[in-house]
Automatic annotation (TrEMBL):
InterPro entries: 6-hairpin_glycosidase_sf, 6hp_glycosidase-like_sf, Alpha_rhamnosid, Bac_rhamnosid6H, Bac_rhamnosid_C, Bac_rhamnosid_N, Ig-like_fold, Rhamnosid_concanavalin
Annotated ranges, domain Alpha-L-rhamnosidase concanavalin-like: 374-473
SUPFAM superfamilies assigned: Six-hairpin glycosidases
Ranges for domain Bacterial alpha-L-rhamnosidase N-terminal: 189-358
Alpha-L-rhamnosidase six-hairpin glycosidase domain ranges (all copies): 481-843
Identification of the protein by name: alpha-L-rhamnosidase
Any one Pfam family match given in the protein's UniProt record, by short name: Bac_rhamnosid_C
Organism: Catenovulum agarivorans DS-2
Length: 946
């Protein structure tokens, strides 16, 4: 194999370089932690620093770096807090600060320079900043405040009474009434700087001097509130001025106080509270702190009468509170408000800066079409199943109630809402005058494609500009990074993106529309990899992992959903709780950040301990939801036919293997050896316990006893006849549980099963994501293409042929002909089956990481005659990897960009390379290690493409 050194820019003259005369451009793309740029309200006391080699630079590989952190932007000696000095290393990301831990509100400056392959130093980077949030409870002066009305949940709902026709026969919906809080303050001097630190038990929206200070929604988001509540920090300097000012905050129940799941589930009373601290620095250097305390006043007689995540919002304009958040609020108005109720901070509940971006409007979508307008009821089609809120601009009649309902699909022209179960997803607006109104709900979100409007002024002719939708999700960047010449494949990629958007609303949820919307761990572990290809979601996942650590039981149990609420059932299951090992591991593979393994190692280890506790002689007896929603089950259950002990034991082995590898990377040698041995023992046992010599399942398998001491299961049956499924083979093949020869036999069995089902998948949540990696690894990418390109049930394209604009929960959730399939649990926005999108990048496009963080990757596109052209990119800590390929008869044209500080190997087994050009210059090789730069490859196929 040849080693190609990409030639440096021939125009660059080489000369001696000193610091004032640097040719090597400064590093760029400076980031802190999991991707923050100049953060305000930062969370990490020992931040990690990342940068990239400038794309313009002739530097190919970094050989050393120097990071400096200082309390002043002049970096004078006396202000230096940490200087890494010149450190010989190619690491350009996740370099950990080693100075004194940063404290609440501390502001620091940082910069970096690097040395290239010729030991030349770069210029210093631009100076970036970090401003810490309030990191300790003790650093708050504010107290929790709330409305003095009794904290009980109330049932006197104006709108959500008589829940009829739902899957769950329920009493009237209970809710907390939203309320408004305010205070006024006077400033003698000009403002230099102002920060608002704020959070709620519930959800909040802050206003200063009559203006909303941010676009964030549903803040502070959802964490295990009994242990930790995230706080937000805002730069509000612009909103405050000399003289009279006012701070007002509206609050509602959100996840904290609102119901979780359907209303038959008994839930505790958790009142809504606000915590706010406005810190103002005046020009003369004095400071003023406006903190939530007993001087504030509250009103629950404002326009947002009711608000609930599941049920919607009720806005009555007759209750509007003029000037409530501005200094012009009159004493007369104030007299109708009440003094607030005050509670101290609870030392057991940590207040910590939010460690990922808050939810915000990321896109606005206009209604595409009016589907029907009958008897004063208008149905709008947004053209896309989405998650967010509408903004309506509608003619209203005084005193009349405008009603908005939301549905994911129609059945003919019927507005089908049964799959929302008990979630009412209904917004109301009561007009206080006749004429056009504009309204957007504040404290709710809906999953929908269609909007039904009624109660408006029906003398006006509706038009599509009456409704736009504000798409809400955690405010990260979604990449537009995959394209091909195949319409359905592009649509699938797009649907996966919409599934991601819709279910990344502060936490990763199963679905965004019905009375569930929970952080199901199983769904998350199957989708994490695909999500990292599609969006900048590292901080999103890391934040959720913190909640997972907090929700882990003392016995190591990791719940089925995170955040967990103790009043909910369904504690854990294999493959679900295994998110504890799989999510950190996948994040590490993508980023190369050992920090994520460090942070989660203890949780991973305790989870494996829980597995061990639930196993008998290495066979797991942990229950699970099984290969959830497998199509064509023999047993007719949602859990599918794949044997549960086999699933649980495969995951036990897999998690143990991940743990062993993580221990090794972290330098925990004893653990590494112990868990590697344990992995091998489980693996050995797994093969013989479940499979015979022909690699078929044993006809009868003994059930493992339920208890550690070997005593039996309660059930009389001691054995079971297992059913062989595609997932039966996919799990051990993907998790490396077979020896070489066994592998080949197992692959044959798997392929035969797929052939037998007419080249269709028969897999649920667990098996489906493994199809592509397993089939590619064992040389069956063409079969994967067949599965992927099927248009009949069950397949990905089947949903698209039936109008899908998102990923569905079931392979047959809906059909154009029959509408919803009748199952009560049936969402049209579930990301799990979108896991296949990983293969678009890893397989079809061919970018396979071989070292964490894409420090090295293999370029190994899977050509198939179904596709003539594919292009895409992958964002990495080193920069973007971009690739495209195009097939014309027997020829293939490839373009590949290897980012700085990375390397790649070509693997084009089906292709004779005719020409390999680097920056236009011919390179005479067929297989090569490619250095950073852009390459063009021209080849001819050795074989006829399938
Ligand atoms: C459903 C959820 C989720 C799945 C569990 C087992 O309620 O929607 O997707 O993980 O069941």
């Amino acid at each position: 194999m040849l080693f190609i050194q990409a030639c440096s820019n021939p125009n660059a003259t080489s000369k001696h370089i000193n610091n004032s005369d640097v040719l090597v451009p400064a590093p760029t793309a400076l980031k802190v932690g999991e991707g923050f740029v100049n953060p305000i309200g930062y969370y990490e006391q020992k931040p990690r620093f990342s940068w990239q080699i400038s794309a313009q630079s002739t530097t190919q590989q970094q050989t050393a770096y120097q990071v400096q952190v200082a309390s002043s932007s002049n970096f004078s000696d006396s202000t230096l807090l940490w200087d890494s000095q010149k450190t010989l290393s190619d690491q350009n990301a996740w370099v950990r600060y080693q100075g004194k831990a940063l404290q609440s509100r501390q502001k620091v400056y940082w910069r970096v320079r690097i040395w290239d392959q010729d030991q030349q130093a770069s210029a210093w980077s631009e100076i970036n900043r970090i401003e810490m949030g309030i990191i300790n409870n003790d650093d708050w002066q504010a107290q929790w405040i709330g409305h003095p009305a009794p904290p009980e949940r109330t049932k006197d709902s104006i709108i959500f009474s008589s829940v009829k026709g739902n899957a769950f026969p329920v009493p009237d919906v209970e809710y907390y009434r939203p309320f408004y809080l305010r205070t006024g303050f006077q400033l003698p001097k000009k403002v230099k700087k102002a920060r608002l630190y704020i959070t709620a038990k519930g959800v909040f929206k802050p206003y200063i001097n009559g203006m909303a200070i941010s676009e964030d929604a549903m803040t502070p988001g959802w964490t295990p509130y009994h242990k930790r509540i995230e706080t937000l920090a805002y730069d509000v300097t612009e909103f405050i001025h000399t003289g009279k000012n006012a701070l007002g905050v509206a609050v509602a129940e959100g996840w904290h106080s609102g119901r979780i799941f359907h209303p038959t589930v008994q839930q505790p009373t958790l009142p809504i509270r606000l915590l706010a601290q406005l810190e103002i620095e005046l020009e003369d250097g004095t400071t003023q702190v406006i903190a939530s305390d007993k001087s504030w006043i509250a009103s629950n007689r404002g326009p947002i009468r009711e608000a609930s995540n599941y049920d919607g919002e009720y806005y009555d304009a007759n209750y509007e509170l003029p000037n409530w958040s501005s200094p012009n609020f009159t004493a007369e108005s104030a007299a109708k408000w009440q003094p607030v109720l005050v509670e101290p901070l609870d030392p057991a509940v940590a207040l910590q800066p939010k460690r990922h971006k808050a939810v915000s409007t990321t896109t606005t979508i206009a209604a595409q079409n009016i589907v029907s307008n009958k008897n004063g009821v208008v149905i709008f089609d947004m053209g896309q199943n989405l998650v967010g809120v509408p903004e309506i601009k509608v003619p209203a009649i005084k005193g009349q109630r405008i009603k908005l309902r939301f549905a994911e699909a129609l059945e003919g022209e019927r507005f089908a809402v049964e799959n929302l179960r008990s979630a009412k997803n209904t917004d109301y607006y009561v007009a206080n005058a006749t004429g056009p109104i504009t309204y957007q709900p504040t404290f709710t979100f809906h999953g929908y494609r269609y909007v039904e409007l009624s109660g408006h002024d029906t003398s006006a002719t509706p038009s599509t500009d009456w409704i736009t939708s504000k798409v809400l999700h955690s405010n990260f960047n979604v990449y537009d990074n995959f394209n091909s010449d195949h319409v359905l494949l592009n649509k699938l990629s797009n649907n996966v993106e919409w599934g991601l958007r819709g279910n990344f609303l502060d936490i990763p949820t199963d679905c965004p529309q019905r009375d569930e919307r929970l952080g199901w761990t199983g769904d998350a572990q199957v989708f994490v990899q695909a999500s990292m290809y599609k969006a900048d979601v590292y901080s999103f996942w890391s934040a959720w992992l913190q909640s997972m650590r907090e929700d882990q039981g003392i016995d190591g149990l990791v719940p089925n959903y995170v955040p967990f609420r103790s009043f909910l059932k369904s504690l854990t299951g294999a493959a679900w709780g295994d998110a504890a090992t799989i999510v950190p591991w996948e994040l590490y593979q993508f980023t190369g950040d050992i920090g994520v393994l460090e942070e989660n190692y203890n949780m991973m280890k305790r989870w494996v301990g829980y597995h061990t506790y639930n196993s008998y002689q290495h066979i797991s007896r942990m229950g699970s939801h099984g290969d959830w929603l497998q199509p064509f089950t023999l047993n007719g259950t949602n859990g599918g036919d794949t044997n549960r002990d086999l699933i649980a034991t495969a995951y036990y082995a897999h998690s143990t293997h991940i743990l062993a590898k993580s221990a090794k990377l972290l330098g925990y040698e004893t653990d590494a050896q112990y868990y590697q041995k344990l992995f091998e023992q489980i693996r050995e046992k797994f093969r013989h316990y479940f499979f015979d010599q022909n690699m078929d399942l044993h006809a009868l398998i003994t059930k493992p006893p339920l208890f550690q001491n070997g005593s039996e299961r309660k059930s009389k049956a001691k054995t079971f006849s297992p059913v062989t499924t595609q997932t039966t083979y996919l799990l051990p093949l993907a998790f490396d549980l077979f020896d070489k020869e066994e592998q080949l036999a197992a692959v044959d069995k798997l392929v035969a099963l797929i052939e037998k089902s007419d080249r269709h998948l028969r897999t649920g949540f667990l098996g489906t994501p493994l199809l592509a990696p397993v089939l590619q690894r064992f040389g069956h990418s063409d079969l994967m293409y067949d599965l992927l390109f099927q248009e009949t049930y069950p397949s990905w394209f089947y949903s698209i042929k039936n109008g899908a604009t998102t990923m569905w929960e079931r392979w047959n959730s809906y059909s154009l002909q029959d509408g919803f399939n009748g199952e009560k649990m049936n969402s049209l926005n579930h990301y799990a089956y979108g896991a296949v999108a990983s293969w678009f990048y890893r397989g079809i496009l061919g970018i396979q990481p071989t070292k964490p963080g894409f420090k090295h990757f293999i370029f190994n596109p899977q050509f198939n005659r179904k596709l003539g052209q594919v292009s895409g990119s992958q964002s990495t800590p080193l920069g973007d990897i971009a690739a495209q390929w195009q097939i014309q008869q027997k020829n293939v044209f490839i373009e590949l960009t290897v980012p700085k500080n990375s390397q790649a190997n070509l693997m084009l087994p089906k292709v004779n390379i005719e020409q390999l050009l680097f920056n236009g210059q011919a390179i005479d090789t067929k297989q090569a290690t490619l250095q950073p730069g852009s390459y063009e490859i021209k080849g001819t196929f050795k074989v006829d493409l399938k």
